[in-house]
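seq:
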Amino acid sequence: MIMTRVKVSFAPSIRRLPSYLIIIRQALQNGESYISGTVIAQELNLEPIQVRKDLAITGIIGKPKKGYPVAALVAAIEHFLGWDKVHKAVVVGAGNLGFALAGYREFKLHGLEVIATFDIDRDKLGAIVHGVPVLPLEDLSAFVRDNGVEVAILTVPGPVAQDAADRLVEGDIKAIWNFTDHKLDTPSGVVVHREDLSSGYALLSVMIRNQRGREA
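struct:
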């Protein structure tokens, strides 16, 4: 189960917008001026009415028989998602997952700039991984505060997750993306989103089972 401090009624629509954006950006690269909700729906095996409802939350309005202006639609989605602004981020936990997320190039394209990784392992401190330094955990609060960091990606073991979150709160963090199995206790002013990778795998497993059933 994905857990978040903020209840968003259109969360499913928000999750679909990045997939729409890939298709719309491709249309922009192809020199197309307009794209219809039907075209987007066909690419993603969705209903056109669902696509139009999802795009409506960005505030953009399509034109009858023409669709949406491509460049304006890209800008509208990026603005709604907050991807047209730079958000400084840190990764807390310099393990395999932490390093992978710190080096994920798509983040920077979407305005999320990871500027440091933190860990307690002295053997890792001072290393530069994906252009990002590994710093001691005891410096976390001051670093977050002094560098205007808004987002923390938390990948530490569950038993130490709350301690790491407390340090982030002390540094006035705005949001925590929680990849641990621990439910965090944070002030109401801190947005927390728990990313449960098992939920994604559960969906994939069911899709595989259903596909096998159709092929049988």
